[in-house]
Specification:
By secondary structure, the protein is of the alpha/beta class. It is 26% helix and 26% strand. It binds zinc ion (2 copies).
Length: 201
Amino acid sequence: MISVDLHVHTFYSGDAHIPPKLIVEELHAHPLLKAAAITDHDTIRGYFEACRLASTYKDIMVIPGVELSTFEGHLTVLGVTEIPSQPLSLEEAIDFTRANDAVIVVAHPYRVMGIGDLARNIDADAVETYNGRSASRENKLAEELARVLNLPGVGGSDAHRKEQLWMAYTEIDASMNVDDVLNAIKHGKVRAVMSKSRQVY
Ligand SMILES: [Zn+2]
Ligand SMILES: [Zn+2]
């Protein structure tokens, strides 16, 4: 079982302030949480930088991802190292993800920029039931959505600042290997966790 923050932004997101180097150092220093998915808004640059920096450490893992801005709202895609041309619709984002055999996570469905009930019409792999920056009520609605759709629930901090890192994360029954993690998410071998130290926004 490994603990992974599946939703982290670097300063390449534009609205975030976390240097990729800091994420790598914090993972190395953390006693338990040794892996994170870099899911910047519409760019992979932060992932590539974090990945390069992480390669000097043996105990941590960085997972490629992106939070795509679609006309309908945000969609997190894990396991891609390129992005589709934009602007794009939710349907085009789904097509891109499937063509790349990647994992679709419905990010913060009931917060601003979430796709909300549109998630019922798409073939997602998981719902983000614990988002570190969503209100409890919004996370509860996401949990209900995951239950209705019979999809696994995952957690991620959605950190844009250092102090928000690891506020929510996912326990995954997988080894420290990206493909293994992606497969485990697809097969529901996950449990969303909210950190006790979380601040409510
Ligand atoms: Zn978002
Ligand atoms: Zn985000």
